[in-house]
Amino acid sequence: MIIKECEIPLKVHMIEALMRRLPPDHARQPILNLDIKKIKAGYSGEYRVLSTLNALPEKEYLLFHDLRLIGSPFPFQMDILILTSYFLLIIEVKNMAGEIYFDNTFNQLIRTNPDGKTEAFDDPILQVNRQRQQLLEWLKSKKIINIPVETLVVSANSSTIIRAENRDINRKVIRKDSILIKIGEFKEKYKKKILSTRDMKRISTVLLDEHTLYIPKLLESYGIPINALQTGVYCHKCYAFSMERRLRKWICRICLHSSHDAHISALQDYVCLVKPTITNSEFRQFLQLKSPSSAKKLLTSLKLNHSGHTKGRVYSLRSIIEDRTK
Ligand SMILES: [Zn+2]
Q1: Which residues constitute the domain of residue 316?
Q2: What residues does the NERD domain cover (predicted)?
Q3: 252 and 204 housed in the same domain
């Protein structure tokens, strides 16, 4: 049973927001376009693996997509985690076209594109082993001990050619189509029931409660100053930043499309690109809204958590970013 669904990664929404708010000919547009394609390819691989895993008996196998837990010394993120009464399994998904080569000497993964270009990546076997160590620590801190934790690297692309220096790698790296067989092997290996159904429910709740969203600092990582961003409210029909507030509605001055909630998309862009809180004056500046009282009405209507009073009131946009990932 899928407990934590496969959702489009927040970073995709963030890069889309950035691309929308930069001029089309901005020097960073090509790299943003490339990065968004890479993240989407990763996501589609994870989606395909999770769809295959959905065939597992739903009460025995609890599936979590993209969990990020606060570990020591740093947070760790797992593409897919499977929780059973007998063992846990962490899956790192790779969705790379062409040929991939596991280089044990230097612990790297070398990918050769179909066009012959080579690129090096961190060794996913090491990555997933690190996640295992951190998950074991995390489980210990929750007084969950003695449950075996297995790891796998799964290649989601059926056309990928997998090569390795060390043949033993096939115990740790498999193709998506072998995953159910491999899980069957783990089931044979671990016959001792360690977690009751109640334990599974409890761990499942804790995992969901302790999942923390990672909000990367996008402008900083791409070296883009905040004043390069286009402000204003964009039209959902013609995509121009041309929405104006008139008679309690947003009207596009180009195509005349009208909307009651176009300010929410603008706020989603703000929280993705600027920061997770906003004041009335920052709201007016980003949305190009003149009237403080309309700004106050719009912000109040969103029922956001807030602190402070009158002009100094700071609204939290946490719920806006959480909605963004759904
Ligand atoms: Zn329009």
Answers
A1: 231-324
A2: 41-158
A3: no
